[in-house]
Design brief:
By secondary structure, this protein is an alpha/beta fold. It contains three helices and three strands. Strands 2-1-3 form a three-stranded parallel sheet. Helix 2 packs across helix 3.
Length: 103
């Protein structure tokens, strides 16, 4: 039996631009390596998919569904704290798409 509310926080970015997604994924992997080796987040998973949802709309939709069905997730807390150097307009589009995918 799950609690009434199960929030899950993830870094999330959705786009149909595969080169942009690849760049963001690489950036996040590099940050994870730096944080892990510096001791800031020792033991942090270096696999982006363990703590982020980065992908095209279909992938993001499936990942959200996975969290709902397998973890009982009731709320997705979307963060972009680790994603830098991306046009704010692209973040707005990503957030709008995430809202559509989760409604």
């Amino acid at each position: 039996s799950y609690p009434d509310e199960i929030p899950v926080m993830r870094t999330v970015f959705v786009s149909e631009d595969t080169s942009l997604l690849s760049r963001i994924r690489h950036q996040l992997e590099e940050q994870a390596k730096q944080m892990s080796t510096s001791g800031i987040r020792k033991g942090m998973s270096l696999h982006v998919d363990d703590w982020a949802i980065i992908g095209e709309p279909g992938f993001v939709r499936e990942k959200i569904l996975f969290y709902r069905e397998n973890l009982g997730m009731t709320d997705l807390i979307v963060t972009r704290l680790r994603i830098g150097k991306v046009d704010p307009e692209l973040f707005e589009r990503s957030l709008a798409t995430i809202a559509e995918l989760t409604s």
